[in-house]
Specification:
Distance between the termini: 50 Å
Number of helices: 1
Strand content: under 5%
Radius of gyration: 20 Å
Shape: flat
Helix content: 55-70%
Length: 63
């Protein structure tokens, strides 16, 4: 057994941020728009999963 086996594994990065220094204002604005669209998509998925969870909780609720 290696020493590192019992340490938590690092989580992989979900998003690799680009280097912003070489981007112009228009590119940065487009990048922000893309990020906002992704945030909106993720929030919609969170809401969808939350409503499924609420429905399951109501279904399995004991009287």
């Amino acid at each position: 057994m290696a020493i590192d086996d019992d340490l938590p594994r690092p989580k992989p990065a979900r998003l690799t941020p680009p280097v912003l220094d070489g981007m112009g204002v228009a590119e940065l604005t487009l990048y922000v728009t893309e990020l906002e669209a992704e945030i909106t998509r993720v929030k919609a998925e969170i809401a969808r999963k939350g409503s499924h969870r609420a429905a399951a909780d109501l279904f399995f609720k004991t009287p």
